[in-house]
Write a structure and sequence with these properties.
By secondary structure, the protein is α/β, with parallel strands linked by helices. Helix content is 49%, strand content 9%. Helix 2 runs antiparallel to helix 3 and helix 9 runs antiparallel to helix 10. The termini are far apart.
């Protein structure tokens, strides 16, 4: 998998940062990009890009490279709520203090970074402030605003684009819905657009990603017809809708409720 150009340029120049946030929607394979980044950093056959087939690259793909520590959200003994556990972060921090076993870097990939507990984030902060030499920490996040400011300020932000919408299937539809919402158009017009979306989680997530991108475009415009507070409200409602769909609430009902909340 090709890396974002900013990462490729940093690898070529040797100007590797010690900490990154890979932010992207649920449909963006952030973990795959992070593994590709680790391969590019550790592969000795094709350093800087990663060959994808040597012993080092295969170990990274399979998740058993000793110098690549990958954390995921897990339930606790007392709750089914998934989060990156405090003890897992503690173990990762201790591993980063040890000299690499197979290469010249220790790499930590924290999946579901949005779910870190405050204690885990505070523990990680100390390592971000004084990282062991050669350490690279990559935090994967759907919305980095869910991470503490202290974490965000010490990481380089890399936006990961979804590959689920390569032909822009919902790009124009999302822009149209955003335009209709901005113009306070009749709900029936927006409902017709929502009815055209397939009622699967995957399709809904792609549409929501496209809506977020449309609002980001508005935010970056020098002169937008949509006020900043309306954009922030809309993005917040999109995240709420995404979480509802994750919990298996009906897709069409959730999307229609979302546009009502944004336009209300």
């Amino acid at each position: 998998m090709s890396l974002p150009s900013i990462l490729e340029n940093q690898i070529k120049s040797g100007d590797i940062h010690h900490a990154y946030i890979f932010e992207g929607p649920l449909t963006a394979d952030k973990e795959k990009v992070a593994r590709s980044f680790a391969m590019a950093l550790l592969c000795r056959v094709e350093p800087g890009t990663g060959c994808g087939s040597c012993a080092t690259c295969r170990k990274i793909k399979d998740g058993n490279h000793l110098d690549v520590n990958l954390l995921r959200a897990e339930p606790s003994k007392y709750s089914k709520v998934l989060s990156v556990r405090d003890e897992a972060v503690d173990q990762m921090i201790e591993r980063l203090k040890v000299k690499p076993s197979e290469g010249d870097r220790n790499i930590a990939i924290i999946c579901d970074g949005d779910t870190m507990t405050p204690r885990a984030a505070n523990r990680l902060l100390k390592t971000l402030e004084e990282p062991p030499v050669g350490t690279v920490i990559v935090i994967l996040s759907e919305n980095m605003n869910n991470l503490p400011d202290t974490i965000r300020s010490r990481c380089q932000h890399i936006r990961i684009i979804s590959e689920s919408n390569p032909d822009g299937k919902y790009t124009e539809k999302a822009r149209k819905v955003v335009e209709l919402l901005a113009g306070y158009n009749n709900y029936s017009s927006i409902k017709k657009e929502i009815d055209k979306i397939e009622s699967t989680k995957e399709e809904a997530f792609v549409f929501l990603d496209s809506m977020e991108d449309a609002y980001r475009e508005e935010l970056l415009k020098i002169s937008s017809s949509i006020k900043r507070d309306q954009i922030f409200k809309a993005v917040s409602e999109i995240e709420i809708a995404r979480n509802k769909i994750k919990r298996n609430i009906n897709v069409k009902y959730t999307l229609k409720s979302m546009v009502l909340a944004i336009g209300g």
